[in-house]
Write a structure and sequence with these properties.
CATH class: Alpha Beta
Shape: elongated
Radius of gyration: 14 Å
Order of helices and strands: EEHEEEH
CATH topology: Double Stranded RNA Binding Domain
Strand order of the largest sheet: 1-2-3-4-5
Number of strands: 5
Number of domains: 1
CATH superfamily: Ribosome hibernation promotion factor-like
Helix content: 25-40%
Strand content: 25-35%
Largest sheet: 5 strands, mixed
Distance between the termini: 21 Å
Length: 126
């Protein structure tokens, strides 16, 4: 079912963690793209948020991998954060994107959308 590996470093992935707990507690096959512009403490919070959602997703479905990318758009002295996520499960592929002023809210919203799509797909198939 995996026709393209999201964690392929040749595609510009800056931070890929696969299956181990060596980097801030992030577990699972996850590629974080564009998050290298954040400072270390912000990256730790991002990894914690993503790790918690991956645990939830793994309990619901057959989780394979996920790619989350960040683009920041400067507006005056602050940034608007565009977060895109693409996840592959045994139940299918899911995609979501959110643009928000607060990075952590955007990250939570994009993961919530994928979680909701997964729940819907599972309920629909029963």
């Amino acid at each position: 079912m995996k026709d393209k590996n999201l964690l392929d470093n040749s595609s510009g992935v800056k931070d890929a963690i696969s299956g181990n707990n060596h980097d801030g507690g992030l577990k699972g096959n996850v590629a974080l793209v564009g998050f290298d512009v954040l400072d270390e403490s912000e990256q730790e919070v991002v990894k914690k948020i993503v790790s918690n959602y991956i645990k939830k997703m793994s309990l619901l479905g057959d989780y394979h991998e996920m790619k989350i990318s960040l683009r920041q758009h400067k507006h005056g002295k602050t940034f608007k954060h565009e977060v895109n996520a693409f996840a592959i499960f045994g139940q299918g592929k899911f995609e979501s994107d959110v643009t928000e002023w607060n990075l952590y809210i955007a990250l939570s919203m994009v993961c919530d959308k994928i979680l909701a799509e997964l729940e819907h797909k599972i309920q629909k198939s029963m």
